[in-house]
UniProtKB/TrEMBL annotation, chain B:
PROSITE patterns, per database record: SIGMA70_ECF (PS01063)
Record keyword Transcription regulation present: yes
Keywords on record: DNA-binding, Sigma factor, Transcription, Transcription regulation
Signal peptide: none
UniProt protein name: RNA polymerase sigma factor
One example of a Gene Ontology biological process annotation: DNA-templated transcription initiation
Domain RNA polymerase sigma factor 70 region 4 type: start-end pairs: 123-174
Organism: Lacihabitans soyangensis
Lineage: Bacteria, Pseudomonadati, Bacteroidota, Cytophagia, Cytophagales
Annotated GO MF terms: DNA binding; sigma factor activity
Family: Belongs to the sigma-70 factor family. ECF subfamily.
Domain RNA polymerase sigma-70 region: 25-89
Length: 271, 181
């Protein structure tokens, strides 16, 4: 459809005699506006000159009123003068009473006091002044210390024969020489079981990813640390973990870890 | 009274009233219909037209004669109408480009005595309401008033190039609407 060729008209109409009324309304409104503006703007001739005069005369009247209101008692100013003079004399006397000190007196005063204190100390030393009964107490203290020393020297902490040899053997047997046993769940070590389960899960994921042989698999890019972090954040319950472990039981055979190794790993990774 | 006579009267402030009466006589219908096509409702158009003429009266001394009288008058009326619509939409809490209210008003005014046109004329108005208010102004001035782009550019205070693009876009959109409906 080509509207430019069709030349469609506007459908709008107005009530009969509308434009006559519109004109009347507008003119009436214009007249009101004109009257308003005339009322607002017109001032009588010489209005502003008169206004200035009126303001100035009002200011004068106001000044006169103010002068009247601050009237003083009789002979006030005579008394004021004598009061001021006597106050000045008092201030002069105060100034003269102030003791003068030599220049830099207060700077030197500090040094003088310190040197005096030192002299007093030296005097005390010369006179060997000690508190009453000082030397008696000192003797007692020295004797007590000597006794303690002698007692300490006399005490010998003994150990059973070859104790240290056996201790060494015990430690080695529990650490370095311990055979690597297959991981087993100990009933009363549920915490170890839970932590171990987390590690087993990591192993499970890794094996699965490897078996799938998908080079661009997103799981393949997840590091063990990230997986641990994931498991830590997931807040899995013991029941969840035990269920997961049950589901991945065959993987246990691939893992050979001692309890010490698991503990060490968990400590290192702050799990 | 012709535009030239009015402009001559406007040169002297004492003749402003006479000039204004001349403007009112010559342009009341033109400006009313121009405003009506923007605001659609007769009562709204009535208010806006009166406001426009009051504004014209107040600003007669600002007319310098460097633009044509009718473009100056249309500019004032256009701005008044667009400002009115913006305020109305804001008061109703609807978007500036949303003319759904005007469309429904057009629908409900079919039996109105102030809307007397053939089906296609009303359809064209509905199609126009698919445009933005400013696009409608451009289309109305070009299509109904048959003004030149230069004159429309003076009224809308935009570039001629931009107006041409706006008008052609408006025509295309209206034709699509009329074909579909």
């Amino acid at each position: 459809m080509n509207i430019e060729e069709s030349k469609i008209k506007s459908p709008f109409t107005v009530p009969e005699g509308y434009f006559g009324k519109l004109e009347e309304n507008i003119l009436a409104e214009v007249n009101i506006q004109t009257l308003k503006s005339i009322q607002n703007l017109k001032t009588p001739t010489g209005y502003f000159d008169q206004l200035e005069d009126e303001i100035l005369s009002l200011a004068k009247i106001d000044n006169l009123r103010k002068n009247k209101s601050i009237a003083t008692p009789k002979e006030y100013f005579e008394d004021l003068e004598s009061q001021i003079i006597s106050q000045v004399n008092i201030e002069k006397l105060k100034d003269s009473a102030k003791s003068e000190v030599p220049k830099a007196y207060f700077d030197e005063m500090e040094d003088m006091i310190f040197s005096k204190v030192k002299i007093e100390k030296l005097k005390d030393l010369k006179e060997n002044k000690t508190p009453e009964g000082f030397f008696d107490e000192l003797e007692n203290q020295i004797l007590a210390k000597v006794k303690i020393e002698s007692l300490t020297k006399g005490v010998q902490l003994s150990t059973p024969s070859s104790y240290f040899d056996r201790l060494e053997e015990n430690i080695l047997s529990q650490t370095v020489e311990t055979k690597k046993a297959k991981f087993t769940v100990v009933k009363n070590k549920w915490v170890y079981f839970r932590n171990a389960a987390a590690i087993l899960l990591i192993g499970t994921f890794s094996v699965l990813v490897y078996k799938q042989n998908q080079p661009k698999d997103e799981f393949a890019e997840i590091t063990s640390e990230e997986m641990i972090a994931y498991l830590a954040e997931e807040n899995l319950t013991d029941a969840d973990l035990s269920t997961l472990v049950t589901e991945t039981t065959p993987i246990h055979e691939n893992v050979e870890l001692t309890e010490q190794e698991i503990e060490k790993y968990l400590k290192e990774n702050d799990i | 009274m012709k535009d030239e006579e009015i402009i001559q009267l406007l040169e002297n402030p004492e003749n402003h009233e006479k000039a204004f009466r001349g403007i009112l006589k010559a342009y009341k219908e033109k400006l009313y219909y121009h405003v009506r096509k923007i605001v659609i409702d007769h009562d709204d158009a009535d208010d806006v037209t009166q406001e426009s003429f009051i504004k014209i009266w107040r600003n007669l001394d600002k007319f310098r004669g460097d633009s044509k009288l009718y473009t100056w008058l249309y500019r004032i009326a256009t701005n008044e109408a667009l400002t009115f619509l913006q305020k109305k939409k804001k008061d109703q809490g609807i978007s500036i480009d949303d003319n759904e209210g005007l469309v429904s008003h057009l629908e409900s005014s079919k039996s109105d005595t102030y809307l007397d046109g053939e089906e296609i004329e009303i359809k064209l108005q509905k199609a126009l309401l698919q445009l933005t208010d400013k696009q409608r102004v451009v289309f109305n001035l070009k299509y109904f008033e048959e003004l030149k782009y230069e004159e429309i550019a003076e009224i809308t205070e935009t570039s001629v190039g931009g107006l041409k693009a706006t008008y052609h876009f408006a025509v295309k959109k209206i034709e699509e609407f009329l074909t579909k409906n």
